[in-house]
Design a protein that fits this description.
mainly alpha, about 0% strand, disordered C terminus, elongated, 2 domains, 2 strands
């Protein structure tokens, strides 16, 4: 799913659907979660004026839930289905928010080669050491980042073995977790050091920037979301 906000615009029939459009609960809720991560990632990357957009996310979640369930007079939702039971209509503000997210999102494509794999491996090794030594981070966040590091390493192994893979989602979530770590740590200078050493060059290699975003390649990136 390249652009989850565009998917949601089609799900709510704001934009036309293609033949065979997947409106299952699995795809719809995954798109919503990815949209939340995408907003967080844009904000982490320095995109401004997203507060109003972010405020609409709970309303979009509610409309999504109502699409798959029956609403009762007391406001409760029951009899959840795996496929839509109702066509919910988004408010103009929610529609504008999804359109804004879709238009402001950008593609991040990272094609590994031998030099990039070597550089990425060195980055992961230093990141692991930093995580282990940073006692100010919540244990759950440290475990989450380590899990994402392992995921990226598996992609590197697949590259070296000639196995087909897509590293982009893993990298987006890893960079997003680094942003969260930098926000939570008491050792911000160490996180800034590893960002300055690796992320500027790495992101410059594979971010396709939209000029309107005014993004700095040295800033971290979050995905979303899931």
């Amino acid at each position: 799913m390249v652009n989850p906000a565009e998917y949601l615009l089609k799900f709510f029939k704001v934009e036309p659907r293609i033949e065979g459009f997947d409106d299952s609960a699995c795809s719809a809720f995954d798109a919503m979660a990815r949209t939340e991560r995408l907003v967080a990632g844009l904000k982490a990357s320095g995109v401004r004026r997203l507060d109003t957009v972010e405020q609409q996310l709970p309303a979009i979640w509610e409309s999504l839930w109502k699409s798959f369930a029956d609403a009762y007079s007391d406001g409760s939702l029951r009899y959840f289905s795996t496929h839509p039971k109702h066509d919910e209509t988004l408010s103009p503000a929610s529609i504008l928010s999804l359109q804004t997210i879709a238009d402001r999102s950008f593609s991040m494509r990272y094609e590994l080669n031998d030099d990039r794999a070597k550089n990425l491996t060195a980055f992961l090794n230093e990141l692991v050491e930093l995580i282990k030594s940073d006692d100010s981070l919540p244990p759950a966040l440290k475990a989450h980042i380590m899990k994402l590091v392992d995921e990226v390493r598996r992609n590197i192994d697949n590259f070296e073995a000639g196995i087909d893979f897509d590293i982009n989602d893993s990298l987006q979530r890893l960079f997003g977790s680094m942003y969260m770590a930098e926000s939570a740590t008491q050792e911000k200078s160490k996180w800034q050091t590893i960002k300055d050493k690796y992320l500027g060059n790495m992101l410059a290699d594979f971010i396709v920037q939209l000029p309107a975003l005014g993004l700095a390649v040295s800033q971290t990136l979050q995905a979303i979301g899931s």
